[in-house]
Amino acid sequence: MSHDTEIQGRSQSQYEFDRRKSAVQMRKQVINFAIMIFLTFVAFATVVADFAPTFIKPVILLLAGIQVVLQLYSFMHMDDKHAPFIGVISTFVWVGAVIAFTFFLAFNTIIWW
Amino acid sequence: MSSVAVTKKKGVGAVIWDYLTTVDHKKLAVLYLFSGLLFFAIAGFEALLMRIQLMFPNSDFISAGTFNELLTMHGTTMLFLAATPLLFGFMNMVVPLQIGARDVAFPFLNSLGFWLFFLGATFLHLSFFMGGAPDAGWTSYASLSLYSPGHGIDFYVLGLQISGAGTLISGINFIVTIITMRAPGMTFMRMPLFTWTSLISSTLILFAFPPLTVGLFLMLVDRMFDANFFDHTMGGNTIIWEHLFWIFGHPEVYILVLPAFGLFSEIIPVFARKRLFGYSSMVFATILIGFLGFMVWAHHMFTTGLGATANAIFAVATMAIAVPTGMKVFNWILTIWGGSIKVTVPMIYALGFIPSFVAGGVTGVMQATAPLDYQLHDSYFIVAHFHYVIVGGIVTAIFASFHFYWPLFFNRAMSEKLGYWTFWIFFIGFHLTFFVQHFLGLMGMPRRVFTYMEGQGWDLFNFISSIGAIMMAIGVVLMVLNMLLSIKSEPLNCRDYWGDGRSLEWALKTPIPFYNFKQTPLVRGFDPYWIEKQEGNPEGMTYAEPLGDVHMPNNSILPLIMSIGLFVAAFGALYHPDGESWSVPVMVIGLGITVLAMIVRSVKDDLGYHLHAEEIIEIENELYGKGGNK
User: Fold this and answer.
1) Which of B:227-246 have CB within 8 Å of A?
2) Taking CA atoms, what residue in B is nearest to A98?
3) Does A110 lie in the same domain as A70?
4) Containing domain of residue A111, as a range?
5) What range does the domain containing B98 cover?
6) What's the pLDDT at B8?
């Protein structure tokens, strides 16, 4: 309700707590960013190293999958446990992913066209 | 503010303007209801024409080409433009009331969703007057529709693209509303079943409409710019359309039937005067049906030659859906079992629904058996099956809910006596029409034929079927008559019209004020109104907050303008392949109108307004007399 909105100033200890939390988050983001750069590098490397296509394709797909999950969790804040309705959001994202993956799998394995 | 004028008499112009600009979920529900009813009547009339043509062998009542247009428009209209908006009407009306909300999460988008649907639907129907309707069936298989002359298919593609966007917007709106706008205490496992099924069916919309949008877009590019996505002679693949269509199309039937299940799950406990049996298993079954609905699309394509493995897997997955659906049927029966049953019009529809729907479900499992489907495919057996499911499941739910929720919508009741007549005429007509079609199918009559030769043993059953169709038409006319007569009846001005209401929507006194709840209710358990009644609370609900100012959204004409822009642009796109010189300017103007309206919406802050506590008291006094909603 708009009429009982409360506005509170932050206390000193709250300020310090937030600061420490942001520092931790920043570190996590940088680490994840580094991992993603590394994974991208690995993907390029497999191509440059001229491995067999039967090896390259699944490896790149796997790396892409990991990147998507990292992207969702670290940069799109799905790892934020206290965000409102985060459980519902995760459920929707994962159900959508499972359904999309089923289509992908079905077309690649059982459906002839 | 607009609040004081709410109950005062207004001129016709003001009322029309009010409905064009409204963002109130109850008024949009009325708009959905009547536009849905309009398209239901049109599509029903098309069906009647087809049945008259098929009444006798070698009939020449309508030509083959017209018959193709009629069958296409009948299917398309009934699924996209009649059943969907009618169910959206009930969802709009009932869901916010059931969860104790003052409006949906995005009132502006709610209005935009309606107008996009309505103008898309109007665009599609203009095809009848502008050179021929689409004629490739509601599935519009690419191998047929790419070569359809004239603009029929273009109308189909553009019209469905626009109305599909509206449906998607409304679906997202309902998901957000149900998840974020529930009153304090309304946990997920206390939500009424209709709210649950609306949530799941909105989720299906969210996941299922994008494949349709993609498919329609590819079809658009193929037809208008000579692309070759579906043209096998140029390296495309016509089967891709079938997959995209059915990845959407199969969930679509669950999008429609799940809210219908929800409506019956509301009606049956009220008239059995018993708590819904197996609530948690009902919720589980709803979710499971929604999920499995995405895993079975290829069962529409058994005969395209997917191979034995795919057919076997999809056959088994399809049969698996019978399990959660069976759970639901048994739960309804066990709710009725041992109840103190009160037979009213909504209840008699519910009692008619259970056996009819089970019959449709059983023939569905027959078709899921892939080898048998090779026999049944494209025969009247299929027609009989899906009409048993759609008419027996969805249309009965809609008709029952007209009666059931009419007091909430209009503060009037529909006549019970006329309601019984309608039910029996419609119900008997329905079974006459479609029961014999099973046998026509088994005798080998193919679907979508405009006539047949005599002496094949089909004459009698076709005649019976057409008689049934005429009875169904009479039933619908009686239903509309009943609605019109209710205008003349006395206003009810009561709460809990049926006397045994259980969920929150019945705790409100009609006419429901535009802000719904003067104070947000506190939900203390499943069936909150029932709990309050048991404890003798005369106000019907416990409040979660003191009487205070209420924040409400402002009306807006922008959704209509945005939709008109797309409507105009669609004409430009339609005539562009003909080399008309005006087509590009029309497209630019149309899209310009839409973009301009979007910019206005983005730049101009519209924060709504506050309705003060004194104004609320004043409105309540005006609606319910001194003392307000007591």
Assistant:
1) 237, 239-240, 243
2) B291
3) no
4) 85-113
5) 24-303+313-531
6) 57
Task: Return the CATH number at B155.
Answer: 1.20.210.10
Count of domains in chain B? Answer: 1
Token pair 């519902």 is found at A88
CA distance A65 to chain B (A): 20
Amino acid B134: pLDDT:
93
Asked whether the ipTM of the predicted complex exceeds the cut of 0.90, the reply is: no
Q: Token pair for residue B596? A: 């301009």
In the A/B pair of chains, how many CB contacts fall below 8 A? 49
DSSP B190: G
Structure tokens at B423: 């039910």
Output the average pLDDT for chain B.
Answer: 93
CA distance B117 to B167: 7
Total of domains in chain A: 2
- In a shared domain, residues A58 and A35: yes
In chain A, count H helices and then E strands.
Answer: 3, 0
Q: How far is A4 from chain B (nearest CA, A)?
A: 9
For residue A9, tell me if it sits in a domain. no
pLDDT of residue B285: 96
In a domain, A2, yes or no: no
Element (H, E) at B610: strand B609-611
Structure tokens at B412: 């009037």
**pLDDT at B5 exceeding the cut of 80:** no
Q: Tell which phi-psi region holds residue B378, choosing left (phi > 0), alpha (psi between -120 and 50) or beta.
A: left
Provide the pLDDT confidence category of residue A4 given band limits of 50, 70 and 90.
low
Kindly state whether residues A101 and A68 are assigned to the same domain.
no
Same domain (yes/no): A21, A75: yes
Tell me whether residues A112 and B610 touch, CB distance under 8 A.
no
Query: What pLDDT is recorded for position B626?
Result: 64
Tell me, yes or no, whether A5 lies in a domain.
no
Give the length of chain B: 630
Which residue do the tokens 């006319």 mark? Answer: B477
- Asked if A84's CB is within 8 angstroms of B180's CB, the reply is yes
User: Would the CB atoms of A112 and B310 count as touching at under 8 Å?
Assistant: yes
> Is residue A68, in this structure, part of any structural domain at all?
yes
Of B180, B207, B306, the CB nearest to A112: B306
When scoring B172, B174, B177, B179 by the number of chain A Cβ atoms within 10 A, the one with the most, hence best to mutate, is B179
B207 → chain A, closest CA residue: A96
A16-72 pLDDT, tens digit each: 998 998 898 889 889 999 999 999 999 999 999 988 888 998 899 999 989 998 888
